[in-house]
Amino acid sequence: MRGAPTVCPRCGTGNAPGAKFCVECGSSLATSCPECGHVTAPGQNFCADCGAALSPRSASTAQVAPGDPSSPGDARAGPPPAPVLRRRDTAELRTVSVLFVDIVGYTALSERLDPEDVRDLLGHYFDAARRIVDRYGGTIEKFIGDAVMAVWGTPVAREDDVERAVRAALEIVDAVAALRHEVDAPTLEARAGVVTGQAALLVKPEEGVVVGDRVNTAARVQAAAEPGTVLVDDITRQVTATAIAYEDAGRHELKGKAEPVHLWRAVEVVASGRLGDREGLNARFVGRDADLRLAKEMFHAGMSRRSVRLVAVSGPAGVGKSRLRGEFLEYLTALPEGVLWHPGRCLPYGDGIAYWALAEMVRYRLGLPEDAPSEEAEAKLAAGVERWVEDPAERTFISLRLGVLLGVADAGPSREELFAGWRLFFERLSEHAPVVMAFEDVHWADDGLLDFVEYLLDWSAQQRIFIVTFARPELSERRSGWLAGHPGATAMHLDPLGEKAMEDLLDSVAT
User: Which of 168, 266, 276, 445 lies at a CB distance of 3.0 to 4.6 Å from 136, suitable for a disulfide?
Assistant: First the structure.
């Protein structure tokens, strides 16, 4: 049986049964209840499925049961009740990082290029932006003309969301510059702004709209950036100062802001060796003396016996793993014989992250920036291998395999050969001084990296190499039995500080 024609409530035109839009004026002919999603008819005041009010008018004139004190016909009725409006969503405050990126001079560029070229340009640009934002765990909120808005901190919040946003901004700006060779636009550049703070979001998963002052400010910060640069606000800089190098961009008058805003120019991602630096309040080291003493004893036991040792530190986020790492590094730095320290952090996002922490250690030893061009990487690799490895044949063997690790050589050798080359490099380093390899955030480590750590323990047993890993407890859930029973490995679990230790910690900061 065919349904009755649907009459448009706006123009009165009859439409075919089941039509969703009016053929005369284009108005919507089908709506749904914001509470339960049930299909409703245009002009309907209440949902037939759950009874929810579908408009402010229907909410304010809702019928009540006879005899209710608020009923208009009841002698005891008081003044009419105030209208009750149902909110379509529940607003939630969330700390987020908002990224705005746009193409500089897009209007003039679109006038000069053919429409097909403009379409291709925007397609490449949007694809690159979407790919980079996804890689760093962000969410594309919208494309506005040639602008891209992305958010970190919703629907999932991570402790390094702010750093992810700045890294993504730097990569998108670089990606746009790389498009110059694909289109006839030698001056093509982008600019970006990143702002961090509280914003309101609508928790409906199909919308996920973030609103508030932070969103508007991010757009203004982006507009203040020079072509090819990324500007951030002061909160963003403070949170990411150990991972991103910044230049002071001064105070800027931003539209809609009563006071000038202090902005910073993101220059580059810096080596993780700075993670040992501590800024701000210098709280006293309390409650972890036994843990630090165990790490020291394990280090000296391994070096005196010339055998590789590993201490696997685990504990929940914020329990004090980084502070223990910093104290241990300070102790090693003060040793008269010296050590060769190698920091490396495992990343939960990005391309080529399987052995990222190990590559960071090699770059740290070679003095090689993360974003160094291939020519510089090849030169510093050759100089570093020549300095630390005496045998010419071993230099050739090691150089090729380190080149694969650093991305400056094609992946030719098998995994076993790569492991052998990387291991040999650290063994040769240990002939000059004790080698310490500190792996951060091992709960994010790829299985291949964990395999290499075990390989190092097995095959470099007679070397002066000390490995310390820092991870959250979930590593044991993902890789149960990792290092269990290995004679060279010691597990160290950090529990939360006791009440007395917390009091001493707070007193050391407050006094």
Answer: 168
Average pLDDT over residues 324-353: 86
Written as one letter, the residue type at 192 is A
Of 182 and 416, the structure prediction assigns the larger pLDDT to: 416
pLDDT given for residue 277 in this prediction = 42
Give CA angle at 452 (447, 453), nearest 5°: 100
Please state, rounded to an integer, the average pLDDT across all residues of the chain. Answer: 80
Select from 199, 187, 167 the least CA-distant residue to 267: 167
Residue indicated by tokens 């193409």: 103
Q: Tell me which residue of 163, 153, 484, 498 sits closest to 314, measured CA to CA.
A: 484
Going from the C-alpha of 29 to that of each of 9, 36, 54, the distances in angstroms are 8, 19, 15
Give the integer Cα–Cα distance in Å for 495 and 316: 8
Name the token pair of 126.
């949007």
| Helix intervals (H) in 8-160 | 56-60, 106-112, 115-135
Q: Which amino acid is at 233?
A: D
The answer to whether residues 152 and 208 touch, using CB atoms and an 8 Å cutoff, is no
Q: What distance in Å separates the CA atoms of residue 478 and residue 473, rounded to the nearest whole number? A: 9
| Host H or E run for residue 398 | helix 392-406
* CA–CA separation, 249 and 266 (whole Å): 9
CB 398 within 8 A of CB 366: no
CA–CA separation, 306 vs 435, rounded Å? 11
Amino acid in the structure at residue 120: D
**Whole-angstrom distance, CA of residue 217 vs CA of residue 236:** 13
User: What's the rounded Cα separation, in Å, for the pair 146 and 125?
Assistant: 9
Per 3-state DSSP, the chain is made up of helix, strand and coil in percentages (nearest 5) of 40, 20, 40
What is the pTM for the complete model shown? 0.58
Q: How far, in Å, CA of 321 to CA of 475, rounded? A: 15
The model's pLDDT over 451-507, given as tens digits with 9 standing for 90+, comes to 999 999 989 888 999 999 999 998 988 888 788 778 889 999 998 888 888 887 777
Partnered with residue 40 across adjacent β-strands are: 31
Contact criterion met (CB below 8 Å) for 394 and 384: no
Over range 249-266, report the average pLDDT. Answer: 89
> What's the rounded mean pLDDT across residues 136-151?
85
Euclidean distance between CA atoms 225 and 202, whole angstroms: 29
